[in-house]
Design a protein that fits this description.
With 294 residues, the chain is of the alpha/beta class. The protein folds into 2 domains: 205 residues, Alpha-Beta Complex (2-enoyl-CoA Hydratase, Chain A, domain 1); 72 residues, Lyase 2-enoyl-coa Hydratase, Chain  A, domain 2 (Orthogonal Bundle). The chain is built from 11 helices and 11 strands. It has a 6-stranded mixed beta sheet with strand order 1-2-3-6-8-11, sandwiched between helices. Helix 1 runs parallel beside helix 2 and helix 8 packs antiparallel against helix 9. The longest helix has 16 residues.
Amino acid sequence: MTIPAFETIHLSVADGIALLKLNRPDRMNAFTGQMMTELLHAFDLTDRDDAVGAVIVTGEGKAFCAGADLSAGGATFDYAKRGEAAREETRIGDVFRDGGGRVTLRIFDSLKPVIAAVNGAAVGIGATMQLAMDIRMASTTARYGFVFNRRGINPEAASSWFLPRLVGVSTALEWCYSGRVFSSEEAHQRGLVRSLHAPEDLLPAATALAREIIDNTAPVSTALTRQMMWRMLGAAHPMDAHRADSRAITSRGQSADAREGVSSFLEKRPAKFSDTVSHDLPDVWPYWSQPEFK
């Protein structure tokens, strides 16, 4: 992978793990349009690179992401006045696309597992961008806030879809109604965060989890599993999952990975999976639109 000279993020790859750092530490990694563009590009890169087995997202410095950069003052969210109208990709008719939503939708489509290692303040888009990530781990010093109503706007980044599915609608509404900032301990207690870690232990713990995935599972199977789990959250009936399962098992059951997975288990040795996401991922979406199962 050739990594561009990003300005607002930093991306590196080592031993199968892509480490993506939000990199505006002097601004507490506040989110900008440039950061959005660079995040979209970064996830395109990690998806295409078969050397990447998992992505860890964290922040440089003391914050994860303190929310939108408010340096434009009262016009921060007035995209028309800020000249966003000139960028046709940001609008659909008279509606301007939310930049945070573009990021979470891209993460939703990721073919690699995404782990958030939340090292500090995660407010606004700093909180909502994590919702499309698969597993959230946090420092004991991290703090969260869905502060939109206190800024006179509304929750964004497709969080009205993601957040209730993760923590339940009552907690989601409480956090968004009040807009209060709360501790990572509360986030953990209410199910938003998988585990809490001392600041110095956070990245090692996230790395260990990524290694558990990379070292023991087939990348194509993991890519399929990620997409199946996320997409089935919106399914109307378990038959949709049955269609997806059946098509995926039919495809994967014929693969070299399936033969290796069984053989390595019977021979009591580590598996060496050879199929790659770039070449062997079945082109079978959307499974549930097919009529073969009634």
